[in-house]
């Protein structure tokens, strides 16, 4: 598992400005109370994990909570990014205990539901940030799309109709921030 040490990647001026606007909104009465779902494989490689870390770090730094499946790979990278930015990561675990939860979760929710917990992850996010792909990630993406949630995809394996492909972390943040600030 690859987890970046820093969250100081270069951001474009529009993304920096949008993060500042989100941060201001998150301190007021119109803040988003629902998290952003960051989904991806538990065996994500370095590119996927670095992207998940960077996206979660930026969003959590602006006051957004993140929700994920709570285990390793992309989920752990996103949790670490959120935690290191001073934010909170919520993990929706498939087991009936938290023994397999990653160490960076602020909240671990054991469901005992196995992979059915993917529906809870998809339902709980304002939007879904899919980084990497596998069957579990695809199931979360499909449910999110079915429920009318925006789904943004980076390093995906299969293109789903309605999912928005992104080129890199800055593009991902620009699109997610556009959704959150609309």
Tell me briefly what this model is.
By secondary structure, the protein is of the alpha/beta class. It has helices at about 15-25, 45-60, 75-85, 115-125, 135-145, 170-180; strands spanning about 35-40, 65-70, 90-95, 105-110, 130, 150-155, 165.
Account of the 3D structure:
The protein has 182 residues and is α/β, with parallel strands linked by helices. Helix content is 41%, strand content 14%. The protein is built from six helices and seven strands; from the N terminus they run αβαβαββαβαββα. Strands 4-3-2-1-5-6-7 form a seven-stranded parallel beta sheet, with helices on both faces. Strand 5 (128-131), helix 5 (135-146) and strand 6 (151-154) form a beta-alpha-beta unit. The termini are far apart.
Descriptors:
alpha/beta, 6 helices, 182 residues
The low-confidence parts are 1-6
Query: Topology as H/E string?
Result: HEHEHEEHEHEEH
> In one word, what is the shape?
globular
Alpha-beta content class: alpha/beta
């Amino acid at each position: 598992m690859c987890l970046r040490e820093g969250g100081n990647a270069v951001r474009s001026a529009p993304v920096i400005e949008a993060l500042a606007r989100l941060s201001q909104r998150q301190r007021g009465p119109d803040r988003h109370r629902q998290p952003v779902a960051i989904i991806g494989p538990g065996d994500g490689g370095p590119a996927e994990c670095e992207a998940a870390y960077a996206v979660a770090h930026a969003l959590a730094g602006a006051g957004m909570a993140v929700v994920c499946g709570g285990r390793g790979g992309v989920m752990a990278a996103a949790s670490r990014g959120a935690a290191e930015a001073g934010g909170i990561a919520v993990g929706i675990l498939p087991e009936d205990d938290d023994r397999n939860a990653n160490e960076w979760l602020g909240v671990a929710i054991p469901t005992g539901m196995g992979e059915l917990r993917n529906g809870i992850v998809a339902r709980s996010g304002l939007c879904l940030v899919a980084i990497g792909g596998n069957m579990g990630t695809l199931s979360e993406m499909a449910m999110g799309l079915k429920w009318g949630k925006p789904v943004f995809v980076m390093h995906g394996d299969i293109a789903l109709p309605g999912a928005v492909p992104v080129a890199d972390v800055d593009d991902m943040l620009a699109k997610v921030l556009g959704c959150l600030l609309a």
